[in-house]
Amino acid sequence: MSDQPNAINVQQLDPSMKPPESQTESIQWYSPLEGPFQIAGFAWFEQEGLYRRMPQSPSHPLSHAVESLANCTAGGQVRFRTSSSKLFLKVVLAGKANSDHMTATGQCGFDCYIGEPGELKYVSTTRYDHNQIEFSAPLFEWSNVSSEMRMVTLNFPLYQGVKELQIGLATGADVASPAPFTDDRRVIVYGTSITQGGCASRPGMCYTNILSRSIPLEFINVGFSGSGLGEPEVAHVLSQIERPALLVLDYEGNVKQPEKFQQTLPEFIRIYRERHATVPILVVSKIRFAKERFDPVMAQLGEERKQIARDTLAVLADAGDKHITFFDGSTLLGDDYEECTVDGVHPTDLGFIRMAEGLAPTFRQLLK
Q1: Is residue 104 located within the same domain as residue 213?
Q2: Closest C-alpha to 173, from 149, 154, 153
Q3: Shortest CA distance to 287 belongs to which of 221, 337, 248, 224?
């Protein structure tokens, strides 16, 4: 008789690990594409009506990778008020979860927050069969809870695209427009897979989404996994986003060679300044990777790129640009930085919390 253990089916042993069953009786379905629902986080949504992070027909040709990753919905939100005691979602994804080191809920799920701008509190995350690309899932079903109007914010998946979305509320519940942001300006954050949210456990733990909960402005996440390379074409397209409050350049981690960073950073800023002469620009150097503790060459390359950023900004400041700031991202995760990642590079939720908390004071200062 074999003494090897049998495979463990946790869902059979622990009912709380099973996805909740969808009981959609007495539910009225709405399209978030129509009022009073508000879609935020997609800069071209008003023109194109798509859950997409770059324009469908950009003015400058984008790389295949950026074109594809633009269909990921990182940073997208649905905002509304409702008195409903139930909230369900029907979702059609562009594909299945396919990462070996990021949760399916982070890649493909939605999560839900309740509260006024600046006071959002987490409620729940969609759970479903990750072998499927279509699912219906509850976010809450409450009893013994008052029927007062509540402000709801839903965060879109960080990686997979969303083809269709419907919102289910209790039949007869009131639905109204959301509370407005502080004003109509946008915070634009351009960067890497870390910017996009890899490897947060759920969408709300991406650092741009964390920041959006304490800074009540619309955030535009244009992090492109492995493909934040500072191309001039991307700079031209991002400069077309209307009503910018702040541009954050967090792409250094994708540019391995210092000379490439030296080439792209001043040109990216120059292109953006052609349209936005005084919008604050924040350049953030990358977080520390675990391997840097043991690989002196890797650590030295990071220091060289960081110095390039400092030198570039000093030259621009001397030339009269008084609206540009450098932030040393190597300080964000703390002395135990290697413990804040999934794979030595991409942050866990702990890492993203530290990033957001470290960046928040500088964001607030620049947004004054």
Answers
A1: no
A2: 149
A3: 337
